[in-house]
Amino acid sequence: MNLDRIIAVRNNKTVYRDGDKTYKVFDSDYKKSEILNEALNQSLVEETGLNIPKLLGVTAIEDKWVIISEYITGKTLDRLMQENPEKKGEYLEMFVDLQIEMHKAKAPGLRKLKDKMNMKISQADIDATTRYDLHTRLESMPKHNKLCHGDFNPSNIIVTDDGTPYIIDWSHATQGNASADVARTYLLFWLDGDIETAEKYLDLFCKKSDTAKQYIQKWLPIVAASQSVKGKPEERQFLLSWANVVDYE
Questions:
Q1: Measuring CA to CA, which residue among 45, 31, 10 is closest to residue 170?
Q2: What is the pLDDT of residues 53-94, one digit of tens each?
Q3: What is the pTM of this model?
Q4: Alpha-carbon span 49 to 57, nearest angstrom
Q5: Is the distance from CB of 201 to CB of 213 less than 8 angstroms?
Q6: Helix (H, G, I), strand (E, B) or coil at 75
Q7: Residue 75 and residue 85: Cα distance in Å, rounded?
Q8: Rounded Cα–Cα distance for residues 95 and 48 (Å)
Q9: Which are the contacts of 8, defined by CB distance < 8 A and separation ≥ 6?
């Protein structure tokens, strides 16, 4: 393998391309269990038939673990939006359609979204009363088993030259309520400073899926609290401000 062509650098990992394969190389202190879980997630989602990169292997290079996947040739949806701002509305339609299609899939072997969120809320830097309210709200939400990406944003969509979209990066995948996944995407647009697109995205998703906006908004404090645990310091402060917006009924 030739690991000299870097295509992405993220926290604690670097992604390389070698021919028709990608090598996601994790830092030596990255938890082995989390790496193997990501590979399991990818294999489970691959079995649904969705367009995602095929998992080709998991190995170790010296003291670092590596996930090997199929390389998808194309551009990210985020890059296409930047290069063709006049088509942003069209790309947003594609984005929402793809998310709705993804939510129709089932991957029974994935971790339950509610279990993960309950654990994260317990770890969040918020007072006990707010944690209690968030746990209570989470338990009251309808229990679903839809495929949720957990980090569904335009930079995790690759569009090939023939217009076929592929969803990448399944490290946060769970099964649960799709509206929680939508709330996460909405917050990601906010974190990126693109509030206008956040609102357009939410309106479009609600229209296409016939989902009440108020229902997704009920998920926002729960999702914000659960996502604040590993966020950057500036992101954590923003997310915790959302986590404290709890309706007292």
A1: 45
A2: 999 999 999 899 999 999 999 999 999 999 999 999 999 999
A3: 0.93
A4: 19
A5: no
A6: strand
A7: 15
A8: 19
A9: 14, 15
